[in-house]
Amino acid sequence: MVQVPNDRRYTSEHEWAKEDDGRILVGITEFAQDQLGDIVFVGLPDPGAEVKAGEPVGEVESTKSVSDVYSPVSGRVVDKNTEVEQTPELVNSDPYGRGWLVRIEPADEGIEQLMTADAYSGLIGFEQEGH
Amino acid sequence: MPAEDDGRASPLLAEHRRLGARLTEFAGWEMPLQYTGVIAEHNAVRTATGVFDVSHLGKLRVSGAGSGEALQHALTTDVLALAPGRASYSLVLTESGGVVDDVFLYRLAGDEWLVVPNAANVGSVARMIDSSGGRPVDEWDRWAILAVQGPESFDVFRRAFPNSRATELSLYSWTNIDVYGHQGLVARTGYTGERGFELYAPAEVATDAFRALLAAGARPVGLGARDTLRLEMGYALYGHELRLDINPLEAGLGWALAWPTSFRGADALLRVKEAGVARKLFGVRCKDRGVPRQGHEVRWGDAKVGEVTSGNFSPTLGTGIALALGPRAQAPDPGARVQVEARGRRIKGDIVKPPFIDKRSNKTTSQ
Questions:
Q1: CB contact under 8 A, A41 and B291
Q2: Reduced to 3 states, what is the DSSP secondary structure of residue B166?
Q3: What's the CATH number of domain A9-112, 3.30.70.20, 3.30.70.1350, 2.40.50.100, 3.20.20.80?
Q4: Who's near B275: CB < 8 A, 6+ residues apart?
Q5: Span A101-128, average pLDDT
Q6: Is-contact B329 B301, C-beta < 8 A?
Q7: pLDDT at residue A130 greater than cutoff 70
Q8: Parallel, antiparallel, or unpaired: how do β-strands B112-116 and B60-63 relate?
Q9: What is the pLDDT of residues B309-321, one digit of tens each?
Q10: How far is it, in rounded angstroms, from Cα A90 to Cα A83?
């Protein structure tokens, strides 16, 4: 069973968002990395980039396909994970930790409007049954 | 909808499910894309041994008087010169020289042949053989096809089938094999660049054969790694380098054309040869991070010099690699520095002559 930690919120596009000292840390879920397979490339915006909730904030590419990563919140990218750009497999091995992607200074809203871990678990259970 | 209901399922489907494979639909067949991960499976084939289920490949038996002559017309290699016990890569072309498919041809006996097309092309290849005067019989459910590939494949195969003489075969040869009391066929063929075998196991004993190979040390490998393995070798794939609108001279497959046998498409290709080939296939090895994909443009300076036909990540090299097709007159030479336009980004790369990895050391020692 894939992990869905309770200490963060989720989107229906399989990103996670976690409060981190007033900023929002963003990554993709364990379910997402498992569906993508071996990740071989991560492309992230440079700090300073403005992003809107629901719009691309980077791309993650596996041996099979390329996927956009959608920003869970609107705001400004203040940091990106250069380690994961050099070592993309961190997204596979540690999606909720060292495989984080960007840190965003939110424009206004926080992450409370996103899905809870329970709600997200329900979503991926549904998607797996649909397989 | 499970493939069982469509009537096209590998006899090993339950085995793949048991092993936790991620399945994907492939030309109406539900086949394993991967078991644990493409990269680990790829590396297993390069460093040890993998076993692929490729039972979705076509199995067309052509037999009877005149079957050789019909295939000589439908296929581009010198079919009649192939001795029983031998196998050959070959192409099926249209009259205008477009590629319908690539196939493996096995001469089973004087007047008996097995033609193995890609899964998606069984119907069109059968029609081409038919219109050349052959009578193909589709034996799709009679065989499982297991590709056993890798530097340790001889040891693995010997352990799984100790009474077989498969390991004495030369490259592109085949022999009969007893598979748990049923007669199968084993050939020294493959699509990975590694030494190995393809085993045609009767469906009734396919599971036993598959389990024996796993127990002998082969790792199950899905079709995801089959693609990265063939791309590292620069092997053409139907739908990518092999298409109706790319002729085999452009695709670098002139070696598979047995002039002057009068195969279908020969006249058109002779005219192409006289006029000069318009396009050329070349390789790109990326230096930046990023993965080239089919349809991406290749630029050399300011000029577009080609379009990617196949691109992926090379697990062996740790970089993106691509085959690309472009006008011969502008084709960059090996060593030229180019860029691949990938979704708004530019990936820097060098032109190389495929294969992307050097397997010659293997060939001299083991093939």
A1: yes
A2: helix
A3: 2.40.50.100
A4: none
A5: 91
A6: no
A7: no
A8: antiparallel
A9: 999 999 999 999 9
A10: 8
Give pLDDT tens digits for B208-227: 999 999 999 999 999 999 99
Tokens of B21: 């494979």
Among A6, A25, A5, smallest CA distance to A17 is for: A25
Instruction: Say if B291 is an interface residue toward chain A (CB within 8 Å).
Output: yes
**CATH superfamily entry for domain B13-58+140-232:** Probable tRNA modification gtpase trme; domain 1 (3.30.1360.120)
b/e B297-317 (16+ beta carbons within 10 angstroms → b) = bbbbeeeebbbbbbbbbbbbe
Residue position matching structure tokens 């993965």:
B291
Q: What percent of chain B has pLDDT over 90?
A: 93
pLDDT tens, A10-48? Answer: 999 999 999 999 999 999 999 999 999 999 999 999 999
Calculate how close chain B gets to A113, using CA atoms only, in Å. Answer: 31
Strands ordered across the beta sheet of B60-63: B87-93, B99-109, B112-116, B60-63, B136-138
Cβ-contact A76, A48 below 8 angstroms: yes
Instruction: Spell out which residues of chain A touch residue B289, defining contact as CB-CB under 8 Å.
Output: 41, 43, 85
- Residue B363 has a pLDDT of 41
C-alpha closest to that of B68 among B99, B96, B105, B100: B105
Residue type, B270: L
Chain A residue numbers with beta carbons less than 8 Å from the beta carbon of B39 are 38, 40, 63
What pTM was computed for the model?
0.92
Q: 3-state class of B297 per DSSP?
A: strand
The class level of CATH for B278-364 reads: mainly beta
